[in-house]
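Input for the complex:
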Amino acid sequence: MLDRELKKGSAELLILSLVEVRPRHGYEISKLIEARSDGVLKFNVASLYPLLYRLEKRGWILGRWVEKAGQRRRRYYRLTREGRKVLAAQRSGWEEFVAAINRITRAENA
Amino acid sequence: MVDWKEEIRHRLAGSNIEPSREAEIVDELAQHLEDRYVELPGGDATPEEATRVALAELSESELLAQELRRVERPVMQEPVVLGTNRRGRGKVIADLWQDLRYGAQMLIKNPGFALIAIVTLALGIGVNTALFTVFDAFVLKPLPLKNPDRITTIEGRTREGERSRLFSYLDYLDYRDRNTAFAGLAAWNKFSAPLGEGPAAIDESTVVPSNFGFGQIVSGNYFSVLGAEMALVSFVVSRRTREIGIRLALGAQSSDVISLFLRQGSKLIAIGVALGLGGGAAISGLLARVLVDISQFDPLAFFIVAALLAGVALLACWVPARRATKVDPIVALREG
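Predicted:
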């Protein structure tokens, strides 16, 4: 499990990325994070939903109640136009950051 | 199966989120737990295990409530009316605790305002206490007699039908000895006499000779009947009782005495109210700097306060004055 602060800093990016292509509901997002990180990252209710609401408050994502046939209604979040810009900026920022860290740590190991 | 919503609601208690929003959040989180419960790996988990796993999602629920509170900017800014049962029990206590904490924080943040508020309250409570003490002593407390509510006077009527309180001593003795209605019967009468030999000095305002004395003759059982047991009936009246007695003895009407006291009192009241309003203006001037929306001179507030204060003060003059006029002049003079 990653350090809490690190997780917090990158969590916004994770969520924005996951709703980029299509709207998803909270449980789906948490499952995807866990599955795609091979269990390294885990979000439970207490950490995931406050974050979703915060992003929604900022206008980066938008939640809608959707009722599909044969299912209970769920809240689906999609990326807004503003969210798309933020995602792009955060993504490049993150890549720069990771690259920088990699350069440093590799230099030490070499 | 566990009622997820109940579990979530329980954990959100006290987070103070606006109710309709809270209901929505509860809905969404409950759906999440339900999904978790249904989709457990392998499908070979017992229901108890599944429940445990789903509820584990709610671990760190303190964090959940706290984070939600931060995100949702709860309705905290709106004043919470004490006693309104917004939702469920426990909520009231949580609200109260929050209000208290909030209030304490505000006071610490604005020590100047806190000081002014505390001093204002202290003054208000102090003045009220003082006034009530006076009111209590003069109006509420019975006279310091054994059974003040069972004491009465007997009147006769003349042939012409006029009321009279005068009885001859022999009549009194008859009444006393044949009385079956009362525990005892006492008699009194007034008398007056010049005291000393000097020339009668005339007090400029009262035209009462200062060396003129008044007294009361009472029957031997007077104190025992009243239940005052040799202690002079201590009427709770101001030091000026004696003066009032003299005025009454000389034929002043009760209304004259009362209006005299009110006139004298009103001067003091005028000064007091002027000082008070000056102080009030100063205080609200300070308040206006600390608080929004307070003008230094709110005419309505000042008028009401002035009228109220003057009314109470006049009452404080009128009550003892009126009581004093009820005192028998002789008794009054004896005390003087």
